[in-house]
Specification:
Layout lengths: L7 H28 L4 H13 L1 H7 L10 H23 L6 H13 L22 H14 L4 H23 L2 H13 L10 H8 L3 H11 L5 H11 L2 H13 L1 H7 L11 H19 L5 H16 L10 H12 L1 H20 L1
Length: 356
């Protein structure tokens, strides 16, 4: 196993040659399991979540590079955990319920997945559709088994729980009836406002909606570099700013889609385009500052630049009003590597149909 890439071209080569093929192998397995789900609605949502959100697993699995010789185990975890996340997101977003109790019960699976040996719960207790043929349980057990093999699991457990709790709270609050969403999110943020005075309620919500910190911690735990100090550095390095940058970019490109679907989009709460651009630049600056103390800082800086390049290269950006100056400035501030990832992502999207 080579060392962790410090430059963009070796990183991209590793991703395409060693990471993505394994991700697609894992996803192919879960797709097969999803296709056997007895309940039609659950089957549809499970298959759609894999089909539409493959890039979430691809992106998250880049952290497996930090796992050294245990790269494949880290990829297995990332794919299983992200598949739970994407599946539940579909069940809350596109399905038959608006019940916060249902959303809360579904999302206990994400906490169980982080707790080796925890009994498997009845995750569908509050909804009509129940028979998934053991699909969600198997995803949870896969994560539990992989974490159960880690002797250093106690060093990351508290941070995993904290990040997962924030993620699950967000998913509950943002999927209820439309007129209840913003009041619930504002009230939730009141508990954290003193600690994060520089964030608005909608930015804090965005920071809570990323799984990157969890994937980074688990990948380090599978490798040789984890200490208690590194675990704390990863938590501070990723929450809130790196995670916030990730999800704000995700929401930025989905603005038109969310408008059409009636989904909450945090980018719409900025006063105007310039305000949004100014805050994106703030998140980029803060991310740079907070990942500096991490081991393999150059890798984490590349992830930040990769996020900017990857999201801004998405074809949805072309349909957004005022996108061009924002894209130009964010790429300029993020530097040559971000432009490289931007061009590379555009090429990948173009070639992907012929690579499949």
């Amino acid at each position: 196993m080579g060392s962790i890439p410090r430059r963009a071209i070796p990183l991209v080569a590793t991703i395409y040659r060693k990471i993505f093929p394994q991700v697609h192998k894992e996803l192919s397995y879960w797709k097969g399991r999803a296709s056997q789900i007895p309940n039609q609605e659950l089957r549809r949502q499970a298959l759609d979540s894999i089909e539409d959100k493959t890039f979430h697993c691809e992106g998250g699995s880049i952290y497996a590079i930090l796992a050294g010789d245990n790269r494949d185990k880290a990829i297995q975890f990332v794919v299983a955990y992200q598949t739970i996340s994407d599946y539940l997101d579909n069940l809350c977003d596109r399905s038959t319920s608006l019940d916060p109790k249902d959303f809360r019960t579904l999302h206990t699976s994400m906490k169980d997945a982080l707790t080796p040996g925890n009994p498997i719960g009845d995750y569908y207790a509050e909804r009509e559709e129940k028979d998934d043929g053991g699909y969600l349980q198997d995803l949870v057990k896969t994560c539990q088994n992989l974490l159960g093999q880690l002797s250093n699991y106690p060093q990351i457990k508290g941070y995993l729980y904290e990040l997962a709790d924030l993620y699950c709270d967000l998913q509950v609050h943002k999927h209820v009836k439309m007129d209840e969403r913003v009041p619930r999110l504002k009230s939730w943020f009141n508990n954290y406002q003193k600690r994060w005075e520089d964030l608005s309620w909608y930015e804090f919500s965005a920071c809570s909606g990323s799984t990157l910190g969890i994937f980074c911690l688990v990948s380090y735990a599978h490798g040789e570099h984890l200490t208690e100090e590194v675990a704390l550095q990863v938590y501070n390095g990723y929450f809130p700013y790196m995670q916030g940058l990730h999800i704000l970019l995700d929401y930025y490109i989905d603005q038109q889609e969310d408008l059409e679907e009636g989904d909450l989009n945090f980018c719409t709460y900025y006063d105007h385009e310039d305000h949004m651009k100014e805050r994106f630049l703030y998140f980029i600056d803060q991310t740079k500052l907070h990942v500096n103390p991490l081991p393999h800082a150059s890798f984490h800086h590349m992830v930040q630049k990769g996020l900017v390049g990857l999201y801004l290269a998405d074809s949805k950006v072309q349909k957004l009003q005022g996108a061009r100056p924002l894209v130009k400035e964010l790429l300029s501030v993020s530097g040559t590597k971000a432009k490289f990832f931007y061009m590379n992502s555009k090429l990948y999207h173009k070639l992907k149909p012929s690579l499949a």
